[in-house]
């Protein structure tokens, strides 16, 4: 039995991929803190998680013991489970959080991640961490003398808070066209100075070439299966080797990660990839990887349960375009 706890928006896709690969005799469990049947309905058994973190951990542990669940993949708030790893292991439960000790969560801090990558010789987008307006202005001035500049919070997901800082841009531009993620540099620096509790920010050179997200099934630091997704505006193409993929694989090995991991890279103007960040969870785009012929959630689930993994049949030259679709939302959870 395997249980997928509340995760990111792609939890539905991870459950579906696992269910397709596993024998019908293996029950797949899923849960969420909200009533989300369009997600949890993909599983055989669906539950509602308690909202309070401490109560949630106790409830998950008790339910897993009662139902003989052998594998649990935590998708959000994973640190609360990692802190109790010993209790899960004592119950014979394989807890998967992306890391194998609380120390692994240092990578959520992009300042720490950048410094450790540099120390390890892993190519990473260089960054200056700032905590006040004066530091922000100095960092911007130094980097703008060399080329385009961008900024993002030291902590965060989904690219929240990312902006390109541009000279000569109208101050209102960022409000008129927020999806462009561009803002007048002086406006941004001035607004940062008005914050009563400014969040640490990373000021970085902006690399204008392709971004690659590499989804990886990894076991105790060893990559098992992976798919790279190269983003070209509205189109994505797949790759299974090359410099960006090799850099991502070296990263999960170095940091001894464990689970379904996403590593993001950005190419410089010469096409050389640099690490942007490592996400200790499955990505929002993992649903697209089966179109390349690799069912990463299925591989993860089968291997963790000691079952033969589904065959991969790489589709050469596949390109995809993402569209919105509707799915039924039925409120009767399966229990």
Strand content: 15-25%
- The level of helicity is 25-40%
| Topology, number of strands | 16
Mean pLDDT: 92
Provide a count of the helices. 11
Question: What is the CATH architecture assignment of the largest domain?
Answer: 2-Layer Sandwich
Straight-line distance between termini: 14 Å
The number of domains is 3
Q: For this entry, what is the oligomeric state of its chains? A: single chain
| CATH top-level class of the largest domain | Alpha Beta
Q: What gyration radius follows from the Cα positions, in whole Å?
A: 21 Å
CATH superfamily of the largest domain: ATP-grasp fold, B domain
Strand and helix order: EHEHEHEHHEHEHEEHEHEEEEHEEHE
Which consecutive residue ranges, at least 5 long each, have pLDDT under 50?
none
Sum up the overall morphology in one term. Answer: globular
Helix/strand structural class = alpha/beta
CATH topology of the largest domain: D-amino Acid Aminotransferase, Chain A, domain 1
Could you provide a short overview of the structure?
The protein has 335 residues and is α/β, with parallel strands linked by helices. The protein has three domains: 2-98, Rossmann fold; 129-200, no CATH class; 209-321, D-amino Acid Aminotransferase, Chain A, domain 1, CATH 3.30.470.20.
């Amino acid at each position: 039995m395997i249980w997928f706890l509340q995760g990111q928006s792609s939890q539905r896709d991870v459950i579906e991929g696992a269910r397709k690969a596993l024998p019908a005799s293996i029950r797949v469990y899923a849960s969420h803190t909200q009533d989300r049947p369009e997600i949890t309905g993909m599983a055989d058994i669906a539950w509602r998680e308690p909202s309070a973190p401490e109560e949630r951990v106790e409830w998950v542990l008790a339910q897993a013991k009662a139902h003989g669940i052998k594998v649990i993949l935590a998708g959000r708030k994973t640190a609360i489970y990692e802190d109790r790893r010993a209790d899960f292991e004592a119950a014979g439960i394989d807890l998967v959080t992306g890391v194998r000790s609380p120390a692994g969560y240092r990578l959520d801090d992009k300042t720490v991640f950048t410094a450790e990558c540099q120390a390890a010789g892993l190519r990473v987008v260089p960054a200056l961490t700032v905590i006040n307006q004066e530091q922000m202005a100095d960092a911007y001035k130094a980097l703008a003398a060399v080329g385009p500049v961008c900024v993002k919070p030291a902590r965060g997901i989904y690219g929240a808070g990312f902006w390109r800082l541009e000279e000569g841009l109208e101050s209102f531009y960022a409000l008129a066209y927020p999806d462009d993620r561009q803002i007048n540099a002086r406006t941004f620096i001035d607004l940062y100075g008005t914050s009563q509790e400014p969040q640490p920010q990373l000021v970085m050179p902006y690399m204008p070439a392709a971004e690659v997200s590499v989804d990886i099934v990894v076991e105790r630091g060893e990559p098992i299966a992976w798919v790279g997704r190269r983003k070209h505006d509205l189109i994505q193409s797949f790759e299974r080797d090359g410099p960006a993929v090799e850099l991502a694989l070296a990263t999960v090995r170095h940091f001894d990660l464990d689970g379904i991991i996403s590593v993001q890279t950005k190419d410089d103007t010469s096409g050389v990839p640099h690490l942007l960040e490592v996400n200790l969870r499955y990505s929002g785009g993992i649903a697209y990887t089966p179109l390349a012929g690799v069912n990463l959630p299925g591989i993860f689930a089968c291997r963790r349960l000691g079952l033969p993994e589904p065959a991969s049949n790489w589709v050469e030259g596949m390109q995809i375009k993402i569209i919105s679709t509707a799915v039924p939302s039925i409120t009767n959870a399966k229990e």
